[in-house]
Amino acid sequence: MGFLHEELDTVRKIGANAELPAYIPENLNPSFELRQYQKEAFENFITCFENPNLRQKPTQVLFHMATGSGKTLIMAGLMLYLYKQGYRNFLFFVNLSNIVEKTKENFKNQTSTKYLFADEIVLDGERIGVQEVENFQYSDPDKINICFSTTQGLHMDMWTVKEGGMSFDDFEGQKVVLISDDYAIIGLSQRAA
Questions:
Q1: Strands across the sheet containing 143-150
Q2: For each of the chain's 193 residues, which pLDDT tens digit applies?
Q3: Which of 5, 16, 130, 176 has its CA 20 to 30 A from that of 169?
Q4: Three-state SS at 90
């Protein structure tokens, strides 16, 4: 069995790959024009996600891309795609606390030049909000709920139960997308995958 990227290259050659849905670029910040390799990254993910012959479970995907190549923008676009697939909860974890703050700015501060989404996110005619949450116990089913953490902070929260913190209960019966932006890794919770 070859590498997934080789299989996807073959799928692309025969024209069986998924197309980039228009709602993804429409709901990303228009200041960031998608480059061809970013479009192909979306198409590859969607092709893999929607094809049971390509998609492994639990689903784990690595985007092997250089620093500054727009991995975080791809993560934002995939949040939109996965929202349409029924995912509402996104756990975004990185190695350093200063990167957590920068990432929050990119996903939450609409006045920032690095804000990733369009001024309004509209999917299927419905306006969708983005909100930061501390855990998924009370997440809003009509919003993109993002919990930001460091890897170390997440480990501490999971193994040292505290009020309002993330715990293993947050994953029980929930569809959760785990995103590690340090390496652009996406994993879907096993129960939901």
A1: 60-62, 185-188, 176-180, 89-94, 143-150, 126-132, 121-123
A2: 567 777 777 777 777 777 999 999 999 999 999 999 999 999 989 998 998 887 878 887 877 777 788 888 999 999 999 999 999 999 988 887 778 888 899 999 999 999 999 999 999 999 999 999 988 888 999 999 999 988 888 878 778 877 777 778 777 778 888 888 765 555 566 554 4
A3: 130
A4: strand
Entry pTM: 0.85
Would you list the domain boundaries of the chain? Answer: 4-188
30 near 120, Cβ under 8 Å? no
Is CATH 3.40.50 the right assignment for the domain spanning 4-188? yes
Q: In this structure, are residues 74 and 41 in contact, taking their beta carbons and an 8 Å threshold?
A: yes
Question: Smallest Cα–Cα separation from 128: which of 45, 1, 24?
Answer: 24
Both tokens of residue 47?
């092709």
Q: What is the dihedral of CA 162, 164, 169, 175, to 10 degrees?
A: -150
Alpha carbon 26 to chain centroid, angstroms: 17
List C-alpha distances in Å: 4 to 65, 89, 108, 186: 15, 26, 33, 15
